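User: quick one, sequence for these tokens?
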């Protein structure tokens, strides 16, 4: 069951509890490194700009739309990276929207030429809002479809400061990291006298790359990457696990999302969500593009319309394999 399937905004409104919501998610999690883990800020040769777009469940009403723009820069003299991110998410029929502008910083401590630790922090300013025109409260139905509700006064928008932090270890072929989001658990209720703290989101991610063509890893032209990403927020959690192959300028792979056989949120409801198929291409000018499609395998079935996701990443200057510095070997997509 997806984290996103638990955005029970309408139920929360009617019960007067506030806003219960989980964070936006991306199937191409490594294509949004600043969102995944602030320790990945500046894990490039110098500069990087990224664009992400996701449309989830388009066959169910308006679905969920997520947009993100990121930029980060590595400063070799300071062993540091700085970055900025703007993300917007629109959920469901009630116009529940999430907009965040954030800045991040990372520092790298090298153990040797091929191993290092990175630590990072992110501070964001978030605005949440909704469209009240489509809301229908129980008291309106009881009062013969009255045009207005007598429920407690609600704000149409809220804003708050949000802090996150992360750590990462990497070697030439292996990496493992973790991040904690919403460290300060900001208040996000729409009710004047309500209390709805945004629960912390824990993310753990790891991966390993190896050659497939019989050459040494450094000189290989065909490599495979295996990676996993576990995340938990409040009582909801899920695991993305899979792999992909890089051959020349082409990338293709498959991922699975869920926790089958390990956890069910209720009897008869297996924790399956989606199988993700992906295909990408990198131009000679270091412009990387990828498309992925989520094949829904939960009880929503393909009547949900699955999910479409596109990412575009551009890095400069051109990579030089003879440079002493080696970027974190995380997946391109």
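Assistant:
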């Amino acid at each position: 069951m997806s984290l996103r399937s638990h955005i029970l905004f309408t139920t929360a409104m009617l019960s007067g509890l506030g806003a219960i919501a989980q964070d936006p998610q991306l199937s191409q999690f490594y294509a949004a490194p600043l969102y995944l883990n602030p320790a990945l800020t500046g894990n490039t040769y110098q500069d990087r700009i990224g664009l992400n777009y996701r449309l989830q469940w388009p066959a169910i009403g308006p679905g969920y739309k997520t947009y993100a723009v990121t930029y980060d820069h590595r400063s070799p003299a300071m062993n540091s990276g700085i970055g900025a991110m703007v993300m917007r998410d629109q959920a469901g029929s009630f116009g529940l929207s999430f907009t965040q502008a954030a800045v991040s910083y990372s520092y790298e401590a090298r153990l040797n030429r091929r191993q290092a630790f990175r630590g990072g922090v992110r501070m964001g300013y978030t605005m949440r809002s909704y469209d009240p025109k489509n809301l229908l409260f129980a008291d309106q139905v009881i009062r013969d479809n009255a045009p207005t509700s007598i429920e407690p006064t609600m704000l149409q928008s809220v804003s708050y400061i949000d802090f996150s932090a992360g750590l990462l270890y990497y070697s030439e072929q292996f990496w493992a990291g973790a991040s904690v989001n919403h460290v300060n658990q900001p208040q996000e209720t729409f009710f004047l006298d309500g209390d709805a703290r945004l629960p912390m989101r824990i993310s753990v991610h790891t991966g390993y790359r190896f050659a497939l063509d019989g050459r040494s890893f450094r000189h290989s032209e065909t490599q495979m990457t295996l990676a996993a990403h576990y995340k938990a927020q409040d009582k909801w959690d899920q695991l993305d696990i899979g792999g992909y192959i890089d051959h020349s300028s082409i990338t293709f792979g498959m991922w699975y999302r869920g926790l089958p056989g390990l956890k069910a949120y209720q009897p008869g409801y297996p924790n399956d969500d989606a199988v993700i198929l992906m295909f990408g291409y990198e131009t000679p000018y270091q412009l990387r593009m990828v498309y992925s499609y989520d094949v829904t395998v939960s009880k929503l079935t393909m009547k949900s319309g699955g999910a479409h996701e596109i990412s575009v990443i551009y890095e400069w200057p051109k990579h030089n394999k003879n440079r002493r510095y080696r970027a974190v070997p995380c997946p391109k997509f």
